[in-house]
Amino acid sequence: MFIVKNKETDNLSDSHGAQKKTQLKKIVLVGNPNVGKSAIFNCLTGSYTVVSNYPGTTVEVYRGKFKIDNQNFEIVDTPGMYALTSMTEEEKVARNILLEEKPDIVIHVIDAKNIERMLSLTLQLIEAGQSIILVLNMIDELEKSDIKININALKSELKIPIIETIGTSGKGIKELKTAIIDYKIKTNNFIINYDKLEIALSRLKSSINIGQNFSTRSIGALILMEDEDIIDKTIDSESDKQIINNIITEAKSDYNEPLNYIITLKRMETVKKILKYVLEPNYSVKLSIRNFLSKITMHPVYGVPILFIILYFGLYKFVGVFGAGTLVDFLENTVFDKYINPFFIKLFDILIPWAFLQDLFTGEYGIFTLGLRYSFGIILPIVTVFFFVFAVIEDSGYLPRLAMLVDNLFKKIGLSGRAVIPMVLGLGCDTMATMVTRTLPTKRERIISTILLSLAIPCSAQLGVILAIFEGKNSALLVWAIVMGLVFLLIGYLTSKLFPGEKPVFYMEIPPLRLPKISNVIVKTLSRINWYLKEILPVFLIASVLIWLGQVSRIFDMLLFILKFPMKWLGLPEEAGKVFLFGFFRRDYGAAGLYDLKKTGLIDTTQIVVASIALTLFLPCVAQFLITIKERGIKTGIGISIFILFFSFITAFAVNFIIRSMGVNL
Amino acid sequence: MKCSLCGYEFDISESSSACSSCPMNKSCTLLRCPNCGYEFPKEPEWLEKLTKLFKGKKNGRINS
Ligand SMILES: Nc1nc2c(ncn2[C@@H]2O[C@H](COP(=O)(O)OP(=O)(O)OP(=O)(O)O)[C@@H](O)[C@H]2O)c(=O)[nH]1
Ligand SMILES: [Zn+2]
Predict the structure, then answer these.
(1) What are A149's strand-pairing partners?
(2) Around Cβ A129, how many Cβ atoms within 10 Å?
(3) What string of DSSP letters covers A31-81?
(4) Among the atoms of ligand 1, which is closest to the Cα of residue A40?
(5) Is A80:A94 a contact under the CB 8 Å cutoff?
(6) Which residue range is the domain that position A602 belongs to?
(7) The total number of structural domains that make up chain A
(8) A523 touches chain B (CB under 8 A)
(9) Which of A38, A387, A449, A450 has the fewest beta carbons closer than 10 A?
(10) For residue A443, is it within any domain?
(11) Same domain, A175 and A307
(12) Are residues A177 and A308 in the same domain?
């Protein structure tokens, strides 16, 4: 192959005038990265190609010429792009080539087995009024996958020429050439319906200056997605800019989510609709183990025992027994109790002569004796093990399958499978998860999942400690788990009745299941630990200082005095009040306190169950409380918190009452 | 950057644009997938350097 490197735009693309005379038609190849654009490009051009940097960028663009039946064509291979809304420099270049070089034919190359992920760009190109040939490349790999594409159905949906190719062997290139020669421009192509946004789109029309290579509809959509580049390019006057700003603001007021998201979702829904008639299962492929596992993990019946197996080994055995049991035991009883604490106590005895100040560092609730010990001795080993398990699950591709699995159940409580993600993350840290609820598409889902997160989802540290506390007391653990499950379903059901709304729709692409890579798992685990330490350490240390201040000023004692009453109602010893007070700083802090309390042997198993239930349900910690207010607004936030405060005590009270009056011995 | 939930590949700059409406996006160290909204922590710099170091060493061994 002959390649010339050339910094300036070479004459191939510069000779617009000449092109018109000789009727040199221009073809542009577009598509996601790695779909085989270059392979197709090479098949078409063969010998003569030129590579140059796109003006003003470092992005390389390949250009070539070829002949079909004595007709000359110029062809451009663009950098990969995911959508017309361009973000990266490469995507900008690809879009600019489409906008400015006004190709006669656009060949959209997709990886056929990933058609679900890539067809949205086809729709966007059709919407933009481009003359498209859709190339389904990598047909060889499609044949090995578990889907089949009904080409005729797809053709009749999209009304564009569609060619199947194998870029590496040149299969289908002849047909592609015929399609290029025979290309007839049609106008009755597929249209995406944007519902309420249609009004904004038609209002935008008059402000967009004409003569663009993209249709006004497509430019309108890009403007609604607030694409700065496009706005600059297509809107001439300041007054028009004002007008479009008003249209955008008005359109936004109809939705809680950014328009960007709405439009993308509409396109994805349209793709799903089209593919419903186009995709067929490929029965000829023998079910590989991977496919089998992939199916069974999502199966509404068989998926459930698999989930329980994962929970049992991942959470109970590994996080609970190993992390919270063995590791914590070692760090707490050996490292901290034998070495670190005595060291600091001695050190501060020497350094600081005043007892009340010594307390700040090494007293009962001191920064070192409590804050540091809790965070490094109890919480860190637990979350580390949890994050590790989570990374393994994440890297294996199980999470999206879990989302599909619980989608049905979640629909009954007003949520969609999408809400699984914050829930599962909630096991890591509820504060982080509450922030993630922002990504849920409807307000209703956001409120329901915020409540469920604050109430029934323990964070991993809390969960780990609770599992450790219940070690060897399986019936007690069962009571706790059943109460949590019931609360989750009941509250979900009730809130979904209280905030009626549309049934959420849920689509998700399912990436392949795979064996987790150890390097990925390590990087993910360490990244999360890094993030977690940055979040907890300051809170734990500040909590220690606040408790110390509370002690010095007697406020702490006062609060403990008040808490004595609810503790008495719950049948708990006075000391448990401390645990709840800690729990308000962070859930994991409270759990660590419970662990301490259990070690003292002051409480029996029923009391542990009751305390764990109250503590799991109990108020979200300060951080989560603040985030809830920030995410949901002050009224909703405080409302949720007050509800939870009462609800947690009432439930724990009821459980205590039932266990005691039935005389069950756990 | 590849989303560990939906497999969507994206650029870090795209990730921050997905949270442009969030008031905390300056100090936030989470990355957010623009396709499905999944959030996960950014790989800390020290870790990135460490992995590079590892890879560099491996290459060295292969070359020698
Ligand atoms: N099995 C199979 N592999 C293919 C086919 N076409 C291309 N490939 C391979 O897919 C990989 C990516 O192909 P490229 O042609 O570089 O893809 P591209 O779209 O140009 O990628 P970017 O340059 O990153 O945008 C290469 O390893 C090709 O050999 C095909 O039809 N079947
Ligand atoms: Zn994603």
Answers:
(1) A279
(2) 18
(3) -STTSSHHHHHHHHHTTEEEEEEPTTSS-EEEEEEEEETTEEEEEEEPPP-
(4) 15
(5) yes
(6) 303-662
(7) 2
(8) yes
(9) A38
(10) yes
(11) no
(12) no
DSSP secondary-structure letter at A84? Answer: S
Q: Report chain A residues whose CB lies below 8 A from the CB of B25.
A: none
Predicted confidence (pLDDT) per residue in A542-567, tens digit = 777 888 888 788 888 888 888 888 88
Q: Is A78 inside any structural domain?
A: yes
pLDDT average, residue stretch A295-310:
86
- Three-state SS at A183: coil
Residue A374 has, within 13 A of its CA and on its CB side, a CA count of 32
A108 is written with which tokens?
């959209």
A429 confidence band (pLDDT: 50, 70, 90)? low
Residue A291 lies in a domain: no
Which CATH number characterizes residue A138's domain?
3.40.50.300
- What are the pLDDT digits (tens) for A2-28? 343 333 334 444 444 444 445 689 999
Q: Shortest Cα distance from A85 to chain B (angstroms)? A: 11
Q: Which of A37-46, A296-305, A353-362, B17-26 has the lowest mean pLDDT?
A: B17-26
Residue with tokens 């008639």: A277
The number of beta carbons lying within 10 Å of the beta carbon of residue A581 is 20
The yes-or-no verdict on residue A351 having pLDDT over 50 is yes
Summarised one tens digit per residue, pLDDT across range A439-460 is 666 777 777 777 777 777 777 7
Residue entry with tokens 């073809």: A27
Phi-psi region of A396 (alpha: psi -120 to 50; beta: other; left: phi over 0): alpha
Question: What is the rounded CA–CA span in Å between residue A536 and residue A460?
Answer: 13
A570-611 pLDDT, tens digit each:
888 888 888 888 777 777 778 888 888 887 777 888 888 888
Is A394 close to B5, i.e. CB distance below 8 A? yes
Query: Would you list the domain boundaries of chain B?
Result: 12-58
Of A34, A75, A78, A164, which is best to mutate to test ligand 1, by the most ligand atoms within 8 angstroms of its C-beta?
A: A34
> Which string of DSSP letters, residue by residue, matches A530-582?
HHHHHHHHHHHHHHHHHHHHHHHTTHHHHHHHHHHHHHHHTT--TTHHHHHHH
Question: Residue A666: pLDDT above 80?
Answer: no
Give the CA count within 13 Å in the CB-facing half-sphere of A14: 7
Q: Which of A163, A181, A199 is the last residue of a domain?
A: A181
How many whole angstroms separate alpha carbon A373 and alpha carbon A384?
A: 15
Amino acid letter for position A62 = Y
Report whether pLDDT(A216) > 90.
no
